[in-house]
Amino acid sequence: MEKKIAEERIKVELVEDSIIHLFCPPLESGLNRYGFINKSHEKVAYELEKDKGAVNIKTTKIAFYEKGSEIKIVNLQKNNTIKGEINLFEEGGEILIDISEDEKFFGLGDCGGREGIDRKGKKVDMWIKNIVAYIPIPFLMSSKGYGIFLNTTFRHYFDVGKSVPDKLKIFLPKGNLDIYLFFGESYKEIIQQYLEITGKPCLPPKWSFGLWFICREVANDFEVMSDALNFRDRKIPCDVIGLEPGWMEKLYDYSTEKKWHPDRFPIPPYAPNGPHTFISALKRMGFRLELWLCNDYDLSYEAERRIGNDIMKKKEEERVLLLEDDKEKDIHFTAPVRMDNITRPEEPWFEHLKKFIDQGVDFFKQDGALQVCEHPDRKWANGMSDEEMHNLYPLLYSQQMYEGFKEYTGRRPCCFTPDGWAGLQRYTGTWTGDTGGGEKTLVACLNLALSGHSLVTCDMEVTTKEGIHYGFLMPWAQVNSWNYFRHPWLLGDDLSSIFLEYANLRSKLIPYLYTYAYLSHITGIPMMRPLLLEYPDDPEVPYILNEYFLGKELLVTAFSENIYLPSGRWCDFWTGKIYEGPKRFRYEIPEKKGGGLFIREGSILPLGPIRQYVSEKTEEGFTLHIFLEPGNTTSFDLYDDDGETFDYQKGKFIIYHIKATYSKSGRLDVDIPEGLKIEKIVLNSSQKPEYVFLNGREFQVIYNKVEGYIKIG
Description:
Among the domains are: 7-198, glycosyl hydrolase (family 31) (Immunoglobulin-like, Sandwich); 210-296 and 349-523, Alpha-Beta Barrel (TIM Barrel). The strands form 7 sheets. It has a 9-stranded antiparallel sheet, with no helix packed on it. It has 13 helices and 39 strands. β16 (211-216), α3 (221-233) and β17 (240-243) form a beta-alpha-beta unit. Helix content is 19%, strand content 29%.
């Protein structure tokens, strides 16, 4: 039994009118120390009352009550109350919150299993582990309109009604309790509040939304160039060529001395930066290059330097002081000796990667190698034990990769890792680790979306049409050959043609995807959305694990013919059929497709021209898919910028406002701004338009007649 200590150590801070911060001073979390927590907030108007040890705080959105260990908060927006208590121990503490029988819980990232998205009845160990828990995120949302974030990197546990059915218990064995409570009317609102504290998703370069192909581990420069040439000759759009650890002279080289394998990738010493290297040849073909990395460097030296605390400088000053007295000294007994033979304390990890960037490397795959491993006997340079540093390490890795690349190149970084913790969305995208591209990875991505993370992908399963369908219809799309032959031209006639068709669709979707990447960056709402985010009041959606929205206009179904369409009307992108929900039904997947793809009624879906790589020049214009009934108006704001730099932060971007108005008299008016070229308009509607005008001029439309809505069930 833990020994309780005085509850008066708990402090209350009002961050916003719907965000309460409860903490025990000092604010010592590694997330605070290294800038992962936003500390700048505007002042909030509130009413405060204190009476006999009780504290009452009221804003326009919440009413908070605290007395001793007891807390009570009324969500004035949803008119419900949460009750609980906070207990502090000599080490750590616990939060206990009452939960109701019909309450559901979502979040916690990719950990605790990939069986579902409702965390009710689960006990989750918040500790990074390979395969088991790649990205634990200590943020949980309740269907009762609140969320909770535990600001710590120490190992802890969320017991969501497993041990005691009517209690949510969060137990922290070590460290100070530091809790943020969020209150809102929707899951989207609560996620946005959480991201106000930990940061919104980054905006990566536009080319990152094209297809990535990761070559075999044993590939050499000739095989790499052959793969690249095959993509171009076969007209399969592809933007990235990646190399696995075989590119290194020493396999799995953790040091800062890594070099190209001299036999597989001979780089001319007289011209290492081109123009005659294989890298330069890839660039001329429009490809970007990714290199695999492993890491066991002590990143805390650089983390401390970035907050103004140079550990090595201080230690050297202390050593010099010891030598300044008049006693005889033997230099052999005063020079520091480190057991860590990898880290160069004076050199940031990113420093040795600059030579590869100079040669044309665009980004690095931060593999899970040793990130996911415990280091029980390691004392990190910042003084932390591995108990505190283990969950923090992948976060520092992505932060230093992002900031290092940005500072060195002035370009937007593309960071990529399987591991992370709260705040990772500010710096990196992720893949679902060494777990393939099946339906379990989809559950992982749904849980990450419900935890505020946006940029996700998997290792596409190219040997099934279901895997191809899912792998291409994600925020990022990659094929990882590893030790296998996953090349699209080696899949056989049927799968190769399916792969090509999806690759072309992916290319056309990039303007749409890039728009939603930008929206995610400024609003926090993830690109890949569980149905729960769009239909929070639908009782069916907490159990839907084989569907998701890609943006707002597209609904994707994967790995099952048994699908559910929420309320509203849905246009089958493949066939033009219109379905009306809400109902479950058996969907007949077209022969050359791997799953369902539906356009929401009232949508404009802008599809760009097919490009072999994102920056390829073309004179072809856009196709607008419009799903609209007479008497309605809809719009879409298409975003674009230079795709590479941070100039968009200075206002250097374009938003093309596309508007469609379909009058009851049968006239369709489509308005677009100057600079956006439209080749085709495809209209799905029950009524053929009498006239179609594009910016006031008559225009031919491809009309898909809706014979009548297909009632489901």
